[in-house]
Design goal:
single chain, 248 residues, alpha/beta, Lipopolysaccharide export system ATP-binding protein LptB, nucleotide-binding, BCA_ABC_TP_C, ATP binding
């Protein structure tokens, strides 16, 4: 579905992403993890077209989209969420979602109808006619996800969609993400909630200081000495091992 080939992004003297290559298989959830400042969000911005790479290519189903702007990639089926959620505060939840739906549905009635269906999918039906400004953090995260889904993506880039949520809210969101995968949406997710990303992802890439340091199945990555040293720490790695043993 997605191929990133030798992507580098420099900001002046800073190399934020350094010769990164990865593949995202269709119909799967792929995780992208690493410490703060590792280059994860910059890589997302390159994939979505908001930032041009200094070197390398981005391909969607074999088509080179490196030079295409974000709106062209959206038409092709790439959508992303943002770490900092900024809904249109003066609009209702329904109207916010409809903004995304207008990419595929020009008529206002169609876009609003589509917004209602997506709100049901992410658990926002009860808030459809509320002002977006009044939503809780968890509600705003769901709205951010809904706005991306409204563009009817085939590849969804989730940037810390679980950040700021309490454990109960995280548990509620996990089946929502699984449900998107189950209906055929390919997902690449950046996440710091390790137990969630390990439970959701089928394959994980690890970035540190802009470089790819490991990849593989969640259980393999969690035991990788480089990943433990650069990111997880021994305590977190042990907790993930215990969590997996409990689920087994």
């Amino acid at each position: 579905m997605l191929t990133v080939e030798h992507v580098t992004r420099r900001f002046g003297g800073l190399v934020a992403v350094d010769d990164v290559s990865l593949n995202v298989a269709p119909g799967r959830i792929t995780g992208l993890i690493g410490p703060n400042g590792a280059g994860k969000t910059t890589l997302f911005a390159v994939i979505a077209g908001f930032v041009a790479p200094s070197a390398g290519r981005v391909l969607l189903e074999g088509i080179d989209v490196t030079a295409e702007p974000p709106h062209r990639r959206a038409v092709r089926g790439i959508a992303r969420t943002f770490q900092v959620v900024q809904p249109f505060a003066g609009l209702t939840v329904r109207e916010n979602i409809a903004v995304g739906a207008h990419l595929r549905h020009r008529a206002r009635a169609e876009a609003l109808c589509r917004a209602e269906a997506i709100a049901a999918e992410v658990g926002l039906s009860a808030a459809l006619d509320q002002p977006a400004a009044g939503l809780t953090v968890a509600g705003r995260k769901r709205l951010e996800l809904a706005r991306a889904l409204a563009t009817e993506p085939r590849l969804l880039l989730l940037d810390e969609v679980l950040a700021g949520l309490n454990p109960s809210e995280i548990r509620d969101m996990i089946p929502v993400v699984h449900g998107l995968r189950d209906r055929g949406i390919t997902i690449l997710m950046v996440e710091h909630v390790m137990q969630a990303v390990m439970a959701l992802s089928e394959h994980i890439y690890v970035l540190a200081e802009g470089r790819l340091i490991a990849e593989g199945a969640p259980e393999t990555v969690a035991r990788d000495a480089r990943v433990i040293e650069a990111y997880l720490g021994h305590g977190a790695a042990a907790r993930l091992d215990r969590a997996r043993a409990g689920h087994g």
